[in-house]
Amino acid sequence: MRPIIGIVTSQLNEQIKELSYTEIAYTPLETIEGIYKAGGSPFLLPITDKKLAKQYAKEIDGLVLSGGHDVSPIFYGEEPSPNLKETLPPRDEFEIELVKEILILQKPIFAICRGLQILNVALGGNLHQDIDSLDKTRIKHLQTTHPKFSSHSVNIEKDSLLYKLLGKTTLVNTLHHQAIKTLGQDLIATAFSSDGYIEAVESKIPEQYIMAVQWHPEILLINDNEEAKKLFSNFVENCKKK
Q: Which one of 113, 141, 177, 239 is the catalytic residue?
């Protein structure tokens, strides 16, 4: 029996000529295919009333938080930086509530890029709104090379699930300009970029599976990346236990 994996959709704010009469909910096809090929049944969760979060959490076996807009700083008590890009507050609010309900039920979470950031905010952490404006930034975190190709290395902490799956270092793609500043409750950083930004987190609670990465393993699957496959497979396997 395939576990049901909830994938929160995003919302397309730009007009597409042929569909100018309607709003569009979407999620990357690579994420859907990655879950299916790893043995899960993808189940798309549209952004809706946060009151439905509890029902969604009960119906799925695991949750994917995917990439997308910047997280609005209003959800971690800050004013917007001049370099903040477009936000989607309804998605932020919905995902924060959904994360809380999933954690109550101790169901697995796989978070990708923005997903890592909203997870951190949901647990009381905050973000660097624009790392390109910080002096500590020494490498390019928003690559111009096609993201199916890796761009920089990350160093992985030894006592982590990520280390068991991928080893000491790995090469990743990178499509972000925000990053974790202060960790949320019960999260532990498990990987770092060479200039010191958090690239992955897991849960301190042994019973709670969290695999959250700042890069985009779903896009690396285009090149049949073995390490990306391991992340999807490990997540789905843990969802089968619920």
A: 113
